[in-house]
Amino acid sequence: MERVILHCDLNSFYCSVEILYDLKLKNQPVAVCGDVEKRHGIILAKNDVAKKFNIKTTDTVYEALNKCPNLILKQSNLKLYLTYSKKVKAIYQDYSDKIESFGIDEAWLDVSDCLSNYNNAFELAYEIKERIKFELGLTISIGISYNKIFAKLGSDIANKNEIYTINQSDLKTKVFPLPVGSLLYVGKSTEKKLDLFNIRTIGDLATTNREFINKHLGKNGDLIWIFANGLESSSVKKSDETTIIKSVGNSTTATIDITNFEDLKIILMPLCESVASRLKDIDCMANCITISLKNSNFESLSKQITLDYSTDISKDIFKVALQLCRQSTNFSSSIRAVGVKCSKLINTNNYQQTCLFSEYNDKDKKLDVAIDQIRRRFGHYKIGLAITSVNSELGHFSPKDDHTIYPTSYFIGGSK
Fold it and tell me: pLDDT for 351-387, tens place per residue?
C-alpha cells in the first residue's frame, strides 16, 4: 500500500502566537526577533502584513525597520512557542504515532494506518487543519504525498491555511516544472552550481544523468537527485523515538560588518565557548569542527575538518575554527554572520580518543568548567575572556542562552 504522509507547517508561527495574546496586533506589521537593541537580533518570523514590506527572515532589526518604520517588534518568547507547539503535537497524536518534528513549527505525519476512517487523505488533513484553527486559533498549511520530500514541497506550495496534494502521477505535471531551488537541500550555492549546467527546474535535475550530478556535487548531489525523482523513502519517526544528537552548534549575526580577522576572533570566541559548554552538558567530545560564514552579499561559505583527536575544550575549538576561517575568506566581502558546529560526537563516559601530538590540556578543561559554573550561578556576563572585551559591540552576547530552535537537518533514513 502506498504511504500517505502529511507535512504540516504552521503559518507565521511565532507571530501568530504573539497576536493571539494581543489582538490589537492583528492588522499591523509584526515581526518576532532576538535582542531588539542589537543587530544580532535578527528577524525570526513576520506576519503577512510585514511581508508586504519585503521583510525577510534573517534580516537584521536595523534592516527591517528601514523597510518598515512602523514595524512592531516582539522579542522572541521561546517558552510560549514551545507550549503551543506541544498543543499542536497533541492534536497530531490523535491521528498517528508516527510524528517527526522538523523544527518547532513543522512536522511530518505518517497517516497511512488511519485512512480507513476517512474518504481520502485530503479529508483527514482538512480535519486536522480545522481543529488547529478552532482549538488553538492558529492556521496551518499541509502538504500530502507519498514521501517526506514531496509532502514538504506540497506544504511549501500551499497557500496559508490550505492543503496541497502531490501524488506519484503528479511528478511530471506538478513537480518537474518547479524551480530546482524549491527542492529541500537545494540552497542558493547548490542552485548556482546547477545553473552552470543549465539545470534550472526539478525536472532538469531529475532527468540529468545521476553519475554526472554525483561527480560534480558529490554526496549532496546524489541526495537531491533522489529527491527530484521522487525516490526518497525514509520512514517518519515515531513521536516517542529517541533522537540521537549528531552535532552541537551556535551561530549569530554580527552587530557590525566584520572586515578583518581581529574582529572575527572577538565574535568567534563566544561561539566556541558556547559549543564547548554544550558538549560538556551532554557528556560528549567532538572529532569534527565546521565553520559557516555569510558575507554581505548573503553568500554562504562553509568549511570543516576532521581531527585526529577528540575535544570539548573551547580553546581547541577556537584555534581550529579560526584556522578554517582563514582558509575560507580574505574579506573581499565583509562577514555578517558566523557559525561554529562540532560533530562526529563520542560519549565521554565510554572512552576518549587522544593523539600523541594533540594539545589537549586538562588545565584548559578545568578553566572551561570553572567559567561555566560561575556563569550558571551569577549570570553569563559576570566572567569572560579578555578578547571579548576588546569590542563589546561584537563580543557582548551569550550564544548558549540565546540559542533558538531552528529546523533540523534532513538525511535519508532520518533527521538529526
Answer: 555 544 445 567 888 888 887 788 777 766 667 676 6
Q: What are phi and psi of 115, to 5 degrees?
A: -70, -20
Q: What are the angstrom distances between the C-alpha of 272 and each of 54, 92, 269, 416? A: 33, 37, 5, 21
State which CATH number among 3.40.50.620, 1.10.150.20, 2.60.40.420, 3.40.50.2300 fits the domain covering 167-240.
1.10.150.20
Max Cα separation, the chain?
Answer: 66
Instruction: Report the distance separating Cα 356 and Cα 353, nearest Å.
Output: 10
Which option is the CATH number for 1-165: 3.30.70.270, 3.40.50.720, 2.40.10.120, 1.20.1090.10?
3.30.70.270
Dist. CA 221–CA 215, nearest whole Å:
8
Q: What is the mean pLDDT of residues 161-169?
A: 96
DSSP state of 102: S
Grid cell locating 120: 481520502
Query: For 125-142, what is the mean pLDDT?
Result: 97
Percent helix, strand, coil in the chain, to 5, is 45, 20, 35
Residue 203 predicted with pLDDT over 70: yes
Confidence of residue 281 (pLDDT cuts 50, 70, 90): confident
Percent of the chain with pLDDT over 90: 52
Whether the CB-CB separation of 82 and 76 falls below 8 Å is answered with no
Q: Hey, what CATH topology would domain 247-415 get? A: Dna Ligase; domain 1 (3.30.1490)
Instruction: Please report, for the chain, the start and end positions of each structural domain, with discontinuous segments joined by +.
Output: 1-165, 167-240, 247-415
Per-residue pLDDT, 159: 95
- Name, in order, each residue with C-beta under 8 angstroms of 41's C-beta and a sequence gap of 6 or more: 33, 34, 35, 60, 61, 75
pLDDT at 374: 81
State the average pLDDT over residues 150-158: 97
Kindly list the catalytic residues: 106
Residues with Cβ within 8 Å of 205's Cβ and at least 6 positions away in sequence, in order, are: 180, 183, 194, 199, 213, 224, 225, 228
